[in-house]
Amino acid sequence: xxxxxxxxxxxxxxxxxxxxxxxxxxxxxxxxxxxxxxxxxxxxxxxxxxxxxxxxxxxxxxxxxxxxxxxxxxxxxxxxxxxxxxxxxxxxxxxxxxxxxxxxxxxxxxxxxxxxxxxxxxxxxxxxxxxxxxxxxxxxxxxxxxxxxxxxxxxxxxxxxxxxxxxxxxxxxxxxxxxxxxxxxxxxxxxxxxxxxxxxxxxxxxxxxxxxxxxxxxxxxxxxxxxxxxxxxxxxxxxxxxxxxxxxxxxxxxxxxxxxxxxxxxxxxxxxxxxxxxxxxxxxxxxxxxxxxx
Length: 294
Description:
Mean pLDDT: 76
Radius of gyration: 19 Å
Oligomer: single chain
Order of helices and strands: HHEEHHEEHHHEEEEEH
Helix content: 40-55%
Shape: globular
Number of strands: 9
């Protein structure tokens, strides 16, 4: 069961009254013709596997992938970010919310590497979970595919770096990659656990990024107890030492970061990382008048 299924359970099974969605997961994000579906099928069969394995195994070298993972995790959580702020950045830069937050994390990781006197490459690779719209029902199942997205970690300003990942994500939705990767995940699920873990560990990725659209209004449980905030953490493991998770709830977005001790050395590094991440959001907002909530 994926995170969307867990949200459905929370919203429709546990809440006193089913709330509205921040993003309607049942709406069709695009329309397509029968001919386009046929062409997509053949593109997937011909080019999908080659693209997948090329992106999965291209060498990724940086300070955050130098050491084997320890298993010990350090957790961080941002202040609440107004959802409308992210939406305004998205509209003004013609980007996506997931690329905005991924770019902010890339800039923060660059600053962390600089803090320790380490060189950092101009690009970093993230594996990003992308939902497949529309969802046909609320049954527990996987509704996500994934894509390997380059994050620009150069010294350019945040808005300039944002364009790289945004363009790649938009191109991904038009390519056979999402369908190929969705089928690949299902196939890997039938393999022995030791084989699937080995494949995960060999993937050349620095960061895992996920985004869960939660309720757009406050939820209540047990006959009136208000839920004030929700945060979830992405597991960091199987060769990926840093995870970023985004959860939207009641008009705000809470971002959490999971770091293996091999990638994020201690709690002070995590604190700095969170602060730099928030500063990146402020920079991309073009210094408009908004503030983070506690």
